Amino acid sequence: MEKVNFKSEFEKLLYVMEKLRGPEGCPWDKKQDLYSLKPYIIEEAYEVVEALEKEDMDLLKEELGDLLLQVIFQAQIGKERKLFDIDDIIKGIVAKLIRRHPHVFGEKQVKSVQEVNKTWEEIKQKERINNKEESILSDISKIQPSLNQAYEVQQKAAEVGFDWNEIKEVIAKIEEETKELKEVIDDKDTDKIEDEMGDLLFAVVNLSRFKSINPEIALLRTINKFKKRFQYIETSLNNNNKDINKMSIKELDKFWEEAKENNL
User: Fold this and answer.
1) What is the pTM of this model?
2) Alpha carbon distance 159, 214 (integer Å)
3) Domain spanning 147-213 has what CATH number?
């Protein structure tokens, strides 16, 4: 790299990305466009969450860097196409943060997190009207995982009063949806089963919302727990020269219980 005096590491990152996309840059980086990078943006965001779940701060630092790279990558492509650049991105988010925090940057007074949330939604409602959006649900991303979408849809509806009053009503709804799923589980019409399964999942998301638990993160935690315990089974069998394909479910469950006892 030629000798260049950078004012900050951020400025250096912008320079590196520009070089990677330049005439003498990397063939792979030069080939990418705004849309080809979509899978990597999603992947990096999930890896940040996974690092947080592991409480691994070194890994978190690395994954946040990878996620930042995706923003810089998009900004460089936008700049090349004369659509936007990193300054436009930063100006936009700074303006939004100031606009949505009048209690910090303006004269409005708030006394609680609940009042902050109310103010935030009032401002967003005005923005929706100005942007001629038809519904309070319009700004929920359709590309994000379904559990996240369900959580946000329910949260938005609850903010205008369309919600259960007590958690026992939510639990009763889960029981109702479980019963309805049982009634169609042997049906040959898979659409019916899919409908009822979706209703049950939606009801479970409601319960997680009532407890302020993000269902996507809760499921991710369970997936990681399952993987650790299953890997324990595989390692235990390998250490004993046993083939997992020849083991009964009862034998496998024994190792599963050992994994739980070991707090995996």
Assistant:
1) 0.64
2) 17
3) 1.10.287.1080
